Amino acid sequence: MNKIIWLQGVFLSFVLGAGTSACWAEELPDPTRPLTYSSVKQDKTPQLALQAILQRATGPEAIVSGQRVKVGSTVKGARIERITDEAIVWSYRGERHTLRLRPRIITRGNP
């Protein structure tokens, strides 16, 4: 009889303990943080993909992340600065970046 009561007590403490531990799993606010605190979001550089470069009579164009762009266009907040035969130069928040097309695979002879 005592063994049954003891097992019931262990079972109840396990169940109640598991139920209350879920409440403690939530993140509690820091009580020392000022009320006017706001976290600063870090601005990440956009990830662009250069898919094609086109030479048009009106000037060079490129396909960047699925959009057709010219010099001066913007994609995901980045400004296209220059388009060459094999690369583009773009800037974002004062930083310049270069995207190049993949090198062509040259085969010799008949395929």
Q: Summed up, what is this model?
A:
The protein is an alpha+beta fold. It has one helix at 2-24, and strands spanning 50-56, 59-64, 67-69, 74-75, 78-83, 87-92, 95-100. It has a domain at 50-100.
Describe this structure in words.
With 111 residues, the protein is an alpha+beta fold. It has a domain of 51 residues. Helices cover 21% and strands 32% of the residues. The protein has 1 helix and 7 strands. A hairpin with a 2-residue loop joins strand 4 and strand 5. It is elongated and about 95 Å long. The model has no long low-confidence stretch (mean pLDDT 80).
Supply database-style keywords.
single chain, 111 residues, alpha+beta, four-stranded antiparallel β-sheet, 1 helix
Identify the overall geometry. elongated
The biggest beta sheet reads: 4 strands, antiparallel
Structural class, from secondary structure content?
alpha+beta
- Give unreliable regions as ranges: none
Give me the side-by-side strand order of the main sheet.
4-5-6-7
SSE order and pairing:
Blueprint: H1 2-24, E1 50-56, E2 59-64, E3 67-69, E4 74-75, E5 78-83, E6 87-92, E7 95-100
Antiparallel strand pairs: 1-2, 2-3, 4-5, 5-6, 6-7
